[in-house]
Amino acid sequence: MSNIQKPDTEITDIIGFIQKGGNVKPFLKDIFLITVHVAGLDYIDNIDEIFPKIKVGDKLGLFREAANEYDKHAILVKYHGEKIGYVPKKDNYVLSKLMDGGKHLYGVVDSIGVDEVYENHQFKFINFKIFLNDC
């Protein structure tokens, strides 16, 4: 009798795949990091035109704005190339460091709506999830 054990077939399949030039990626899904709201919606001039177009599940672009005079860790949020606000300052430090390190982050709209009216003003909100694409 031999003490040699036959390797698991899944492992041998993977080894064979790699030997034939296959590329194994460590993550098949993007990595969820945090849920935040879009800060500064009320300061966007054309938000009344953009806001009705935004739907749950829509993708948001995230862009570093290191030269921002108010926040050196600023991350700009865009919807189809249009500025809609920023990642809140209280949440952007680690995210900005990831982006500065070359990581690709993006957002996906989680919820959208209008809060109660205060002094004839409706407060719009957009909550979104931030994901890391590490491919």
CATH architecture: 2-Layer Sandwich
Strands, total number: 6
Specify the CATH class.
Alpha Beta
Strand content: 35-45%
Mean pLDDT: 88
CATH third-tier fold name:
Alpha-Beta Plaits
* Spatial strand arrangement across the major sheet: 1-6-5-2-3-4
- Molecular shape: elongated
Question: Which class of secondary structure composition applies to the elements?
Answer: alpha+beta
Rounded radius of gyration (Å): 22 Å
User: Main sheet?
Assistant: 6 strands, antiparallel
SS field, number of helical segments = 3
H/E series = HEHEEEHEE
Number of domains: 1
Descriptive overview:
The protein has 135 residues and is α+β, with helices and mostly antiparallel strands. The protein has a single domain (27-133), classed as Alpha-Beta Plaits (2-Layer Sandwich), CATH 3.30.70. 18% of the residues lie in helices and 38% in strands. The protein has three helices and six strands, in the order αβαβββαββ. Strands 1-6-5-2-3-4 form a six-stranded antiparallel β-sheet, with helices on one face. The termini are far apart. The mean pLDDT is 88.
Topology summary:
Blueprint: H1 9-19, E1 31-37, H2 47-50, E2 59-64, E3 75-79, E4 82-86, H3 92-100, E5 104-118, E6 121-133
Antiparallel strand pairs: 1-6, 2-3, 2-5, 3-4, 5-6
Write a short abstract of this structure.
The chain has 135 residues and is of the alpha+beta class.
